[in-house]
What does this fold into?
Amino acid sequence: MIRFEHVTRTYGNRVAVDQLDLDVSRGELLALLGHNGAGKTTSLKMLVGLLQAHSGRVLVGPYDVAENPREASRLVGYVPDQPYLYDKLSGREFLQFVADMYGMTSVETREAIDRECERFELSDFLDRLSESYSHGMRQRTVFAAALIHQPEALVVDEPMVGLDPHSIRLVKDLLRNYVSLGRTVLMSTHTLNIAEEIADRVAVMKQGQLVFDGRVDQLRSQIPHAGESLESLYLALTHG
Amino acid sequence: MSDVAAASLSELAKACERLPSQDREGQIFWKLRLRLGQAQLKFLFAEARLRTGLVVGLSLLFWIGLFVLFHEGFEFVVSHVGSPGATYHAQTIQFVFTLFFASLQIMLIFSSGIILYGGLYASRESAFLLTLPVRDERLVFYRFQEALFFSSWDSSCWRAP
It folds into this structure.
């Protein structure tokens, strides 16, 4: 569903992503891990059309993100690390705008908003201006916006940052339910225990390169001396 | 290609066909702008009456000051160059107007360019809109309209008196 084929992206002389080859299949949740500056966010931004790869290509389904950006966008829902909302719109108006951009009819929009409102427990604040929202409310609204068109792939960048335990649980359950429906989730995170709990596979980036791609038990066999937890395995992999 | 893969591709293609047309995209952005504008006005009149009153009042004062200045300027031309119909009156006025409006046009171009650059490259809203299936030209046009509006309101203040 999501494929990076020999993707490279540089910022001046610095190589942010170096020949990345990564596949995420339908019905799979992949956790993308790595230190700050490893290339995770750059990779996600190339996937959602915010950056262009300098070489290689990024595919969503059959669509090349660079050649068919609108079609690729239609298949993806993106939740950035810093959620953006229009301060002077209510959550409902924001969701209506996003639904309009995906070509949904007014009936579909209404049903979708009701669905996401229930899923993310937005009803208490959905009709207030978003400038009054807390970080958790903003994050949940942006999640709802990312799912309003029921995308084939959900791309989330650091989804747990700033969330309370209830919201974290909500997001974890959502991500697992989403892949159980045959959809795809690509999640970048620093929260290793959550990645270990919900991811089918993990991919570790270091200095722009992919240093591991597989299941956690495979990583354990690869570095048997490092310990059991993903945290100790990750640290052994990236510092070793 | 397997039947399952072909069916999936066909579903994906159907989902992409429903994306808004050029015209519809334009309508959506105007609707967004209208909503934002209404909410901003509502906020200004409900929560920031003093600030709004001050801005409107001072703008009016500025407008009147400019009117008086231009009036005095035209009086100067009539008294020292010639009244309408005199030899150099029309040429002087034409020169002054040309210079004045050319300066305003240059200011408009520069300020639109600066605002457009900031709106496209340093804007979180643009980054958000790029993740939606918005046509690139629509985004540039949306930002250009905004830049033109913000840079021309002050030159309208200059032109009106």
